[in-house]
Amino acid sequence: MKALLLTLLLGLATAIGAAEPARETTGARADPQQQVLVLLRLPAAHFRADGNYASGYADASGRAARRRVAEALARAHGLVLATAWPMPVVGLDCYVMEIPAPRRAEEVVSQLNQEPQVEWAQAMNQFSTLAGHDDPLYAMQPAAASWHLADLHAAATGRGVRVAVIDSGVQLDHPDLAEQVDTSLNLAGDRTYLGEDHGTAVAGIVAARADNKLGIAGVAPRARVLALRACRQQPGAGASCTTLALALGLSAAIEKGAQVINLSLGGPQDRLIARLVDAALARRIAVVAAVDRAADQGGFPAGMAGVVAVVDEPSPATPAGILAAPGRDVPTTLSGSRWATVSGASYAAAHVSGLLALMIELQQGPGRSTRLATADLVVQADRRVDACASLGRAGGRCVCACGETPAMESVARH
Amino acid sequence: MRRGLLRHGRQLTFAALCLVTSLSARAQLGATLAVESDYRFRGVSLDGPGPSLRASFNYDAPNGCYGGASATRVEPEHGDRYAQVLGYAGCTTPLDVDRLVEAGATYSHFSGDSSYDFAELYVGLLAGRWGARLHFAPDYFGRKVSTLYAEFDAHTVLDENFRLFGHLGVITRISGSGNGESRTRGDLRVGAGWVWRSLDLQLSWVGATEGGPYPAVYGGRRSTFVAGASYSF
């Protein structure tokens, strides 16, 4: 009898597996402006009478209960339930619902936020990478000042430190990035992981291989990159990503043990992204974000407390707490196994992510709990990061021949 | 104290259940129907030949408290077929950003023979992918022995549907007569689970050492493969 039951169960599993349609990933084929995110509370895993040793994705019982709530909400508000994405790191289950035209997201969000079962509802925001100017020849302008990489690498190479690049896709087999990527995930909503320019450029600045007689040396050439593709390259205009894809990238970065998260992007204030950034910071993960010059206080998420906000060129108007790093005419890797120069705050942020990886290696070593490195960064009077002084402070020893560093101060944004 | 806890265990668990399940619009209620090829409770089969059926519900309150109940067909002795109705209630609270502490109580009632009824208290430390609990039963299965049961559960999610899980438990008699049996028994379960929508399929290997306080008379195999399926709604 038991053997028969076992056979039946395995047969059922096989049959259902064969019949399961391919799951739509993030509902990204729909217009994000006609989507809302509905956040329901995801209870922590706890004692169950059935001894179910699972939580999050695998907790079928809890998932069914929340799905029933979501379906009722969708029916009540005339929406179409698209997908669901548990985010255990912030105790939320995220449901994507599509809004039939001609209704507008603002109206639906307002109504959903009146529902007591809903933690909150929000629009599906759009973020974009911050690659600087669009002028075709801008990338040909003179290079930015060096960070004395060879001297830095004599002290640290970021060995084993895990840096999450949440961006467009990284070309995994680029000659200068081969074996530098620890994990790659496609969260952008299309079916195939693609190597794209912006993500490949950022990953190269962070961790391109050194001393391989090819291309460039990354700031942290022994760091391990988590290539989390949340953004999709747009023809002629950087890359863009939705709230949901970014949220999935942040969740994955936290769950996979990132020690530094690089966000070379910006967009509108977003409650879900803010919650996940706070969850990362609470776990002592350094979060680096590119500054959007067009936005107040560096934009979002760069303007969040605790986030290391980076601009490529400081100006007298640069708000306090924002620091500057090399980000103009930076040679780096591009998709198609190419190299070229790039400019923009995105790449300045990548420099700082690499530097933090070096500092983490010196401070506490890979794979161990790290403390936030933001307050340990040393900047000069013009807001430029002094990489040698920062690394020297982190390691408690002389780096770059201990050159004098004028008017040093540490950055603390809390 | 021990007798008092046992005598009032059912009422205490029921009261706790009522407390944590006081209606809230933000609460979540789920129910599950399950079938298993063998109902193994801490490594020991509690049913006879044939599959075991279980119905359960779980209630999660917004404040981190929860409660629920399950009914499972058991056969602690050959021919004595009962329903084990297990009620539970507890609360979790964050310890830090990654871990929770948990405390709660269970009460098991056996229809047809209430001499098996017993209560337990438990405390736990839980993280996202593992949990450790310590259970105290003042009168384990009504056999006039008090026990401590320590368990460690862990799982890893391979993708959004597939997971591997493991469970290690040790029960030890801390008072009462063991009728010549050893004081301690260990049990181990390792397996894989696959979730698709509301369906959860599991296949696991379960084994237990000899001795310790047995709740049932079966002298069957100490290890076996167990297949199970559950549907949640």
Please give a handful of descriptors for the protein shown.
heterodimer, A: 414 residues, 4-stranded antiparallel beta sheet, 19 strands, disordered N terminus, disordered C terminus, B: mainly beta, Porin, 1 helix, globular
Q: Can you give a write-up of this model?
A:
The complex is a heterodimer of chains A (414) and B (233). By secondary structure, chain A is α/β, with parallel strands linked by helices. Chain A has 9 helices and 19 strands. Chain A has helices at residues 2-19, 60-76, 105-112, 149-155, 197-207, 243-255, 271-282, 345-363, 387-395; strands at residues 35-41, 80-87, 92-98, 120-123, 126-129, 162-167, 181-186, 224-229, 231-233, 239-242, 260-263, 265-266, 286-290, 308-311, 323-324, 330-334, 338-342, 378-379, 409-410. In chain A, the strands form 5 sheets. A 7-stranded parallel beta sheet of chain A has the order 7-8-6-11-13-14-15, with helices on both faces. Chain A has a 4-stranded antiparallel beta sheet with strand order 2-3-1-4, with helices on both faces. Chain A has a 4-stranded antiparallel beta sheet with strand order 9-10-5-12. In chain A, helix 6 runs parallel beside helix 7 and helix 8 packs parallel to helix 9. Residues 1-28, 133-145 and 404-414 of chain A have low confidence and may be disordered. Chain B contains 1 helix and 14 strands; from the N terminus they run H-E-E-E-E-E-E-E-E-E-E-E-E-E-E. By secondary structure, chain B is mainly beta. The longest helix of chain B has 19 residues, at 2-20. Chain B has a single domain, classed as Porin, CATH 2.40.160. The chains are: A alpha/beta (414), B mainly beta (233). Chains A and B meet through helix 1 and helix 2 of A and strand 1, strand 4, strand 5, strand 6 and strand 7 of B.
Strand-helix topology:
The complex is a heterodimer of chains A (414) and B (233).
Chain A: H1 2-19, E1 35-41, H2 60-76, E2 80-87, E3 92-98, H3 105-112, E4 120-123, E5 126-129, H4 149-155, E6 162-167, E7 181-186, H5 197-207, E8 224-229, E9 231-233, E10 239-242, H6 243-255, E11 260-263, E12 265-266, H7 271-282, E13 286-290, E14 308-311, E15 323-324, E16 330-334, E17 338-342, H8 345-363, E18 378-379, H9 387-395, E19 409-410
Parallel strand pairs in A: 6-8, 6-11, 7-8, 11-13, 13-14, 14-15
Antiparallel strand pairs in A: 1-3, 1-4, 2-3, 5-10, 5-12, 9-10, 16-17, 18-19
Helix pairs in contact in A: 5-8, 6-7, 8-9
Chain B: H1 2-20, E1 28-36, E2 40-41, E3 44-45, E4 52-60, E5 65-77, E6 80-94, E7 99-110, E8 118-127, E9 130-137, E10 146-157, E11 162-175, E12 184-196, E13 199-208, E14 223-232
Antiparallel strand pairs in B: 1-4, 1-14, 2-3, 4-5, 5-6, 6-7, 7-8, 8-9, 9-10, 10-11, 11-12, 12-13, 13-14
